[in-house]
Amino acid sequence: MSKKITLKELALISEFSVSTISKALSDNREISTKTKKKIKALAKQYNYRPNATARSLKSQKTKTIGVIIPNILAHYFAKVLLGIEKEVSKKGYSIITCISDESYEKETKSIELFNSGCVDGFLISLSKETQSNNFYEEINDAIQQGLPVVMFDRTSDKVHCDKVTINDFESAYNATQLLIESNHKKILFVSPISGTNVGNEREKGYRQAIIESFEGAIAPEVLNFTDYPEFTTTLNQYLETNIIDGIVAADELSAIYAMNLAISKGYKVPENLAVIGFTDGILSNNSNPPLSVVDQHETELGKIAAATLIQRIESNETTAPQTIVLPSELILRKSTHSAR
């Protein structure tokens, strides 16, 4: 590889001024398309790369955004992150990704890092511990200091910033109604994310559908849990003393876990048990039988969240924060009768 040259050296070679070269390489409108192409070709030929540190000091922009997610193993967040990466790359930004692992302390350290000046703004889906305890001081401090922030998926009304989400209440309500309309009555709701706004809204949607449809004749049944060994024991005990014909799960993994455990107890899916989860991921497509799901359009949500943040970073106007609610969609597969 040839040795990198400096901006001044490229100016001597090209016979353009340093200012003209800088403007051409940053696609400034003052420079003609013909000149831009010539300068970019010479920069490539002579292995010139702009100094990112110097450029950020001059512009006071890092062209980097931060992302904080609670769990990288969940396919939902992997798909959101894919959408974010596609959008920021298209706009010429880079990303720094931090994982809170559902920990308020880890989330706080990430916010402090981002607030130190290494990013121009950040995207965040709140940790379970943060939401369960209503700890929002650090994120509100970052916003008050002028750092653009966009929340996605797990959000809070106690934080004044842009948000991108789906209608979790309506999505769970519709999923439950689908089972009820297919003559299922004893429908169990399972969730590993109670304490988050997402988990709480989905549980509320399920409860509302049960209450409206059965008018007290059948009560909502909810199993909230924090870890899967606990869930195995609790669900096993529940199935030994209760007969169910439907499961609505707050996420993808808990739906498949519950379905497999029910099958091991003698249930046949979908003949006498229908199951619906959230997130159209790898697991739901490859489970046996394939899982019916609420598709949250995760990749598109990531793109919109990133675009919203970049617009906020690059805009000179101060406008009121907006909440963008994306539509969800029921994808019916063989874990429900409706897929037939």
Automatic annotation (TrEMBL):
GO terms for molecular function: DNA-binding transcription factor activity; transcription cis-regulatory region binding. It comes from the Bacteria. Residues 5-59 form the HTH lacI-type domain. PROSITE patterns: HTH_CROC1, HTH_LACI_2. Gene3D superfamilies: 3.40.50.2300, lambda repressor-like DNA-binding domains (1.10.260.40). Pfam families: LacI (PF00356), Peripla_BP_3 (PF13377). PANTHER family: HTH-TYPE TRANSCRIPTIONAL REGULATOR GALS, LACI-RELATED TRANSCRIPTIONAL REPRESSOR. This is Transcriptional regulator, LacI family.
